[in-house]
Protein: Phosphotransferase
Amino acid sequence: MRKVAVGAAVGCAVAVCAAAALVVHHRMKSSGKWAQAQSILKDFEEKCGTPISKLKQVADAMTVEMHAGLASEGGSKLKMIISYVDNLPTGDEKGLFYALDLGGTNFRVLRVHLGGKEHRVVKQEFEEVSIPPHLMTGSSDALFDYIAEALAKFVATESEGLHFSPDRQRELGFTFSFPVRQTSISSGTLIKWTKGFLIEDAVGQDVVGELTKAMERIGLDMRVTALVNDTIGTLAGGRYNNPDVVAAVILGTGTNAAYVERAHAIPKWHGLLPKSGDMVINMEWGNFRSSHLPISEYDQALDTESLNPGEQIFEKLISGMYLGEVVRRVLYKMADEAAFFGDTIPEKLKIPFILRTPHMSAMHQDTTPDLKIVATKLKDILEISNTSLKMRKVIVELCDIVATRGARLSAAGIAGILKKIGRDTLKDGEKQKSVVSLDGGLYEHYTKFRTCMENTLTELLGEEVSENIIIEHSNDGSGIGAALLAASHSQYIGIDES
Structure:
């Protein structure tokens, strides 16, 4: 009996030792995987590094490319498109004008009643319409018919006192936020689509012509008097409110910048110099690229698999369409190579663009002690539950790396523009203010991104110069700006507003 008892005790001890060994092995395995996950993150962080010395190189490269793009067509990755806007709003504009703002998966229609210097914007109304996904890759007629119908419905809601006289055409400012080769203030051919649109038969067509035909098909009597990019609309809206505005930047789904250039500093301009001496330039800076940009393997893979490989490299590093996707790709590698979410890769994590930048922003800015928002987002979007606090902290860190890189590169781009127009240094005794109008959901809603960008700009320019540089949020600048430009280019200018 005693022998059996001893044997049983020994058996138990062996089992306990085996279980303990298993636990140790599991811990070693999981700590090995944890180290692997940390190593993936660390490596990514190094690749995304934006020390101030590198940012200065990026800013200088931006200035060099601006010069090259102004010198000749195709001279640079920056298209530096001449906008034909040589007069920005002054505040004297009067009357009722419409605007159409097409810049992404939604478009807005606006009605703006302008009352001149005394009353400024008397009244504005708008409606937002989402574009069904099939129209983003369908035919040109289908897209523009859909837009014209929404516009006609909106016009039908005009209040009694605002009806136009029969001999007066309604006028529209058309903000079209895709690369266009402008041929006049009210015409331009589409160079290519970006932001998920791919409508082959519209490329090379005059977008104002396409919209006009669609309006004619449904009997809407309206004339497009200004075709502008959203960045130029933002610049016009900003200048209407502040005469010191020199540039505008959009940081939203996509990104772009426009600024006021001296007309004689545009070698490729062959027309008569405008009376104002100025010309607004649409940079199309999303297409900027430079060997100084911090590009990781994830960015390269994202670019290769995108609709426009090799294009819009700057946009893919800094804009709202792509930030969340970069985070997803790094998480996927951590799940695949370091079993970050357990033994199997979560199915939802395999879906490109499932993690949107607003989700990333919510996780990055989570201030709850146990990072509850991070846990909720992972569960709701990726169907990943039971994450530890330690894991959630890593995810916040990852969001921070991606957002910081984007914000700091945005600041370097702005510094490049200021350098090009000589606003990056202090002139003797001059205290001239330079205002940059900023618009876009990324800038407006992602507080950490915005703060990081503004702090980086101060770091790049130095405290003294920064005192004269103001970043101003121009809320819906592009829509109002388009209406203002329709007003300042109206066919009825000089005719009594009776």
In short: Residues 1-28 have pLDDT under 50 and may be disordered. The first strand starts at residue 81 and ends at 82. The two ends are 117 Å apart (CA to CA).
